[in-house]
Every structure is written in C-alpha cells, then in structure tokens.
Design a protein that fits this description.
Two copies of one chain form a homodimer.
Chain A: H1 9-16, H2 20-28, H3 48-62, H4 67-78, H5 84-124
Chain A binds a DNA duplex (30 and 30 nucleotides) through residues 8-10, 19-22, 24-25, 29, 38, 40-44, 66-68.
DNA sequence: AACTAAGTTAACGTTAACGTCAACTAGGAG
DNA sequence: CTCCTAGTTGACGTTAACGTTAACTTAGTT
C-alpha cells in the first residue's frame, strides 16, 4: 500500500483558504470526520477522502446552498441504499435536486442576459475615441 | 395616463409568498422605497416599479446572492452614469459579475453531471421488474 | 530550562436576514 | 359606539455560520 498522505488541519485550511475554525465547525456539525486522531496529542489528521468532502462542501457553498442542504447531497454520494424503497427515495431526491439545479442554471442565464443588455446600453452611450 | 395600479404591502407579500416584515426590512436597508405613503394613515403603497425591484431581489436570493450584492446589481440596472470614468467603472463591475455568473453556471453544470452519475449508479443496481 | 509554534476544548461574540410581539392608529361593519 | 382588520413603529429574539479569546498541551528550538 502507498501509505496515503495525511494533512494537518492548517494544511487543509491553507489549501482551501479557509480557517481552521471552519474545519472544526464542519466536524462539529458532522459534515467532516477526523479519523485517526493522534492518541496522545489529540491532533486531527485528514486524508484525501476528507479533502474531497471539504471540496464538495465549499463548492456547494459557492453555489448558495446551506450546509444542511449540502450534507444531504453528500449523503447522496456516499449512501449505500439497502432495499428498493431506499433506492427509490434516493433517486427521487436526486431528481428533485436536479430540477432545482436546472432551474437555477436557467435563472442564472437570464440574469446573465439582463446584465449583458444593460452593459451594452452603457457601452453604446460611450464617446467614440 | 392610465392611472397605474398600486399595491398594499400585504398584497405584494402574498404575490411573492413572503412576509410583510420582509418587505419592510428591505425598505429599512434601502433596497425598496415606498413612494407616496398615505399622508394620514402612513400606509405604504407600491407600484409596478417596486414590484419589479422586489422580483429582482428574490431572484437574486434564490441564486444565493446576499442582499448587499443584489443591491449593487440593481444599482447597475438603475444607474445613470455621468462621465466616462463612471461608465468604465460600471462596465467593469458588470464584467466581473458576468464572469462570476458564468463560473457559477459551469459549477452547477458539473454538479448536475455528478448527481446524474450517482443517480444512474443506483438505477442500474435496481432489480428489474 | 525557557520559549515558540501549532494544536485542543469551551465558551462567548458577531452578522445577515428576518420572526415575533407590544403598543398604537385609521377605516369600515354591525 | 364597539369591534375587527390592516397597517404602523420600535424593540427584542432567533438561526446559520463562523470569529475571537482564554486556558491548556505537546513538540521542537535556542
């Protein structure tokens, strides 16, 4: 085994330009887990798995989702549904999220058009040089 | 003149499924103005102009923007820049917003693909009926 | 040994975006 | 006149998502 590299909390924080407090907070509310804490110093260590999770969290935030919402979406990625009922529930959730996202994309495209229109309005009113 | 229709605060609130408090709050922080308040009863009245503004605010919120950010974008719509410097500033702001929006659209499309992938993973693991 | 750097927990502080409640007014319905 | 509805202005309460500070431990210098 290639002895997977692990990160300290401040390494991870620097990586994503956030504070250590933020990472601890995400763990506090159960969105991250620090496996294998040093048994003596109690220091947290993170692997690539947690790094990926953190990346997903931050992407979600940039898109305007709340942490609870993001948590559900991550659970979608990581869930291993038992039974047809559970699978159906998850697929339904995915579908509703997909609709929400597509709606959001459409609204953003409209906003983009609006801004472009106004921008051009100002550009055309500029003095020709 | 066609005597433009005006709305009461609760009419407007019902229209967008928000509370009256929210509308007063938006006025409080200067994102809405209630022109022509009844000089005796002090009741707010709104015209289509304010209705459109409110619509823009709520769209922005759904897209994950903060109220201050939305305020700047609305000012973009309503500004009447004097002088070349001011125009350049506004066009630069529009450009930066456009880039931000396009980035957000890309991220959302990636998120959409991700969710689709996971959804299909579950669908393919379902028992054929 | 003394100091510094990086980490820990616990607890209180902060900001945005409203919710809630109290005390008041003005306009009708009966 | 009395009651009800809809509105008003404060003012305090609430939640999410951290920031900040204190008091402590451990590891690595000097």
């Amino acid at each position: 085994m290639p002895e997977e590299k692990v990160f300290t909390i401040s390494e991870l924080a620097a990586m994503f330009d956030i504070s250590s407090r933020t990472i601890r907070y995400y763990e506090e509310i159960g969105m991250l887990t620090s496996e294998n804490r040093d048994s003596l110093t109690k220091q947290r260590t993170y692997t690539n798995r947690e790094r990926r999770r953190l990346k997903m969290i931050l992407r979600g935030k940039k898109l305007g989702f709340g942490l609870q919402e993001i948590r559900e979406m991550i659970e979608l990625y990581e869930s291993n549904p038992e039974g047809e009922a559970e699978k159906s529930r998850i697929i339904a959730f995915a579908d509703s999220k997909l609709r929400e996202i597509e709606e959001q994309i459409m609204q953003l495209q409209m906003l983009r058009e609006d801004i472009l229109t106004y921008k051009e309005k100002y550009e055309n009113s500029r003095v020709k040089t």
